[in-house]
Write a structure and sequence with these properties.
515 residues, mainly alpha, Growth Hormone, Chain: A, 2 domains, 21 helices, 74% helix
């Protein structure tokens, strides 16, 4: 039984099937997050170069996810559905990239493969987020995204444990000659690629999707209830132009400052403060955002707003109020997480194992141990996600998310307080709870405030507020680590803890739209 005109509730088995593909997606992401810095350093990258090499991942998401969201909103096949074709295409490409990555012969090849891998994973992941919003009523969306979070945690446990298991149980070598990738990493990526494809295929072939006509009926019934105003007023051509000029000017000013700071006169003025060329990327992002607005202003002035570009840009500036509030939460949350991904391996290897040379056995042991701690963290995240399923209808989602983020901040702080590697499982408790929350609760809140016909594009636009902080982290974390902490990568955990506290405070300001 369900309310007339509203989406029917799905069984736990149906929610399981529609979420199972995330098991494979996260296996791919965890192998990427846990091993790419290791691969980069093995191929000759310096610790100070890691952040800029990682910039491929968020840049790919920034470009790919809104486009895929828009395309999947416009796609419909009675046989293949709306989102499922993108699941399958992305999984095939991501699996291929996982097979190739550990065989990269040079650093530049590995950096390019990271771009390909992340693009492919984003092609698969973005429609999965919209899939839950499409298929579930609001009363089950927290359960749906929590189930995704459970599979994210489970997939990450499996992927994170692979190198350690292969070294300690199967006897494969976790060291290799200088410039070569260890055997354990090779086989982890091969197994992960096969698992990714199999899990996504399970969802593709065991689920169905509502037709556009069915979604329109559900949306009409939902819209009949009183709701928080959905969106801001449409942006005018003049507003686009003014905003574009401002952002382009900011980007050019920052680029000019970096050029001066890196000159002989600037270096003499700044003294020991080192301005890395990575900041040019941030300047380019600011100017690029301005350029997008200038183009939108020209198109709107010429009455050429009926195209995909203008739809994406228009939706970005007309986000529902709840989504705009969540954007700040996402910004601080993902800034903190990106610090963990970039500096987790070198930070633990140096701070807890006393190793800085990537080819050394101590470094590889530290990398394996940190990968295993990733499995602990994600196992705890999977358990926390099951807890969210049980309490989803009994607690305010915003307050729950704020509490979880504070637990994550405590976990980051504990990374610096715990010096014995054997006790590193303790910080993973808070980090696991926070991670389960980050990949579920904001999406459950968001899905209730956006129109069904734009679920894909808004999930893609929402990804901007995941990507932008990652891009910022990729350009400024190296600067902060170098100038504030003497280049010690473990102190990225202190920055991440501060960022999580800010995210928790921002969460308390979010006002959910009425269901």
């Amino acid at each position: 039984m369900h309310d007339a005109g509203l989406k029917p509730r799905l069984s736990p088995g149906q929610i399981w099937n529609m979420s199972f593909g995330f098991l494979g997606i996260q296996i791919g992401f965890e192998l990427q997050n846990g091993n790419v810095s290791r691969i980069f350093q093995t191929l000759g990258a310096d610790v100070g170069e890691l952040a800029i090499l990682w910039i491929a991942a968020p840049m790919t998401g920034l470009i790919v996810q809104p486009i895929i969201g828009h395309l999947s909103d416009k796609t419909w096949s009675p046989r293949f559905g709306r989102r499922r074709p993108f699941f399958l295409i992305g999984a095939l490409l991501a699996s291929l990239a996982l097979f190739i990555m550990p065989n990269a012969p040079a650093l530049w090849v590995a950096a390019g493969l990271l771009w390909v891998m992340d693009a492919s994973l984003n092609i698969t992941m973005e429609p999965f987020r919209a899939f839950v919003g499409d298929n579930l009523p609001d009363s089950q969306r927290t359960m749906g995204y929590a189930m995704q979070s459970f599979f994210i945690g489970t997939g990450a446990v499996l992927a994170g444990a692979l190198p350690w298991v292969m070294t300690n149980w199967l006897g494969l070598s976790n060291t290799a000659p200088a410039g070569e990738i260890p055997e354990t990493v090779h086989w982890s990526f091969y197994i992960g690629g096969a698992a990714l494809l199999a899990a996504v295929c399970w969802t593709v072939f065991t689920t169905r999707e509502y037709s556009p006509e069915e979604l329109a009926r559900f949306e009409a019934a939902r819209a009949a209830a009183p709701r928080t105003p959905a969106a801001a007023a449409a942006r005018t051509a003049a507003q686009f132009t003014r905003g574009g000029i401002m952002w382009v000017a900011a980007g050019l000013a920052l680029a000019a400052f970096v050029a001066f700071a890196r000159s002989e006169n600037g270096a003499a003025l700044l003294g020991t403060i080192e301005i890395a060329k990575d900041i040019y990327v941030l300047a380019a992002l600011l100017a690029g955002f301005g350029a997008i607005q200038l183009i939108a202003g020209v198109l709107k002035r010429q009455s050429r707003a009926d195209n995909g570009f203008m739809e994406v840009v228009g939706d970005l500036f007309a986000m529902p109020r709840t989504m705009r509030q969540l954007a700040l939460v996402q910004f601080f949350s993902w800034f903190g997480m990106f610090g963990l991904w970039i500096y987790g391996t070198p930070g633990v290897a140096e701070y807890h194992f006393g190793a800085t040379e990537a080819a050394s056995a101590a470094y590889q042991n530290g990398a394996d141990w940190w990968s295993l701690m990733g499995s602990v963290r994600n196992g705890l995240a999977a358990a926390a996600a099951l807890g969210f399923v049980l309490i989803a209808a009994r607690i305010d989602r915003c307050r729950l998310h704020a509490f979880n983020l504070i637990a994550g901040a405590a976990g980051f702080a504990a990374m610096l307080l715990v010096r014995d590697p054997a006790l590193l499982w303790i910080p993973q408790i808070g980090l696991g709870i926070a991670w389960a929350s980050i990949v579920s609760l904001p999406y459950a809140i968001l899905a209730g405030c956006v129109p069904a016909e734009k679920m894909g594009i808004y999930m893609g636009v929402f990804n901007i507020f995941i990507v932008v902080p990652q891009l910022l982290a990729a350009t400024v974390l190296g600067f902060l680590i170098t100038n504030l902490f003497g280049g010690a990568p473990a102190y990225a955990f202190a920055i991440s803890a501060t960022s999580f506290v800010a995210a928790a405070l921002a969460t308390l300001l979010v006002k959910e739209a009425a269901a």
